[in-house]
Specification:
single chain, 398 residues, alpha/beta, 7-stranded mixed beta sheet, 3-stranded antiparallel beta sheet
Amino acid sequence: MIDIETIRAETSGVQTVNHLNNAGASLPPRQVVDAVVEYLRQEELAGGYETAATRIDDLDEVYRATSKYLSCQVHEVAFTTNASEGWWRAFSSVPLTVGDKILVNRSEFQANAFGWLQAKERGVDVEVVPNTAEGLIDLDALSAMLDEQVKLISMTMISMSNGAVQPAAAVGELVENTNAIFLLDACQAAGQLPLSVDEIKCDFLAYTGRKFMRGPRGTGILYARESVIDKLGPTPFVDGRSALWSDQTSYRYHDHARRFEMGEFSYGAKVGLGVATNYMLDIGIDAIAARIRSLATSLREQLASVPSVVVVDEGGHQSGIVTFTLEPLTGGSEPTDLSEIQAALGQRGINLSAPMCTNAQLDIGARSIQQVLRAGVHYFNTESELSALVEALADLVD
């Protein structure tokens, strides 16, 4: 059981806004905000380098907490400033040459797509694994596509524009006995679902701190399996924290996941992500996942009762991301401008987002959906907040 009253008392924003944009950036708990501000106050009085020297244990807590969440070793965790940074550092370290092959799934986010599209321009083959009728990656098709040329599988566990949870562990089972590297984007999964890298069998896993983790913006995590390090090549993302300039003409990478870190970032935010991760672990990720799923199911059912609202989520296992569109409201053929609906809801104190197909061309773009309204429900949300959204939508449609 989650003590919702206590959680909401520790979440100041719920007093002023109905926040259902947790898939964009969630409301951080007061403990996280206090930790960041307190660290910055110490920097203000003592200096940045001097503060870091005295707060090593607090700065390193993010590694310990993350290793508990992901069921991995502490040295397999790297701190990054966002999910895209972590994803790109992993992707750029995979040696790819002309004729090599990358397999991607239809949940891919635009930042990831830019990586493999650039690789395609260099002569690397990129193939999209089809989905089943229910919108999940076709495991039989993936198995048939796995050959010796496949060097990388890039997969997003939950699309930013679709509530379906992709079967990452089943993909990991297929990839495990191949020479391919499995890179998983868990940006929308982290903080709302249990994540065990041993069960998923991924080589890399990246996520941001600002979404369902409820951490500060400008934070992220990259998990790098110890055994994958020997398969990697050079990367342009290198500085004095990730590598050692060993003599005038050579350098060597630091051991383990630290090779993916840079030396400069917001140190206070790093402390804040450690606090946010422990906050989540103290509540219990299983309880969090159960409550999110219950709230999201309720919201989908309520939305289905509103005229002109069409829920467009796929999959049998669905997440806290609820996406929907509106049928034309004027009797014409032109779709309703969902950004205007988003803005109107915002004026009523209800936060949603409105992703475009340019964010997810292989998902909603492939389904000929130009834009969706997206609610990302979290465990601190309430049924009354969901009802307020549905009532406001019904009023706007009317």
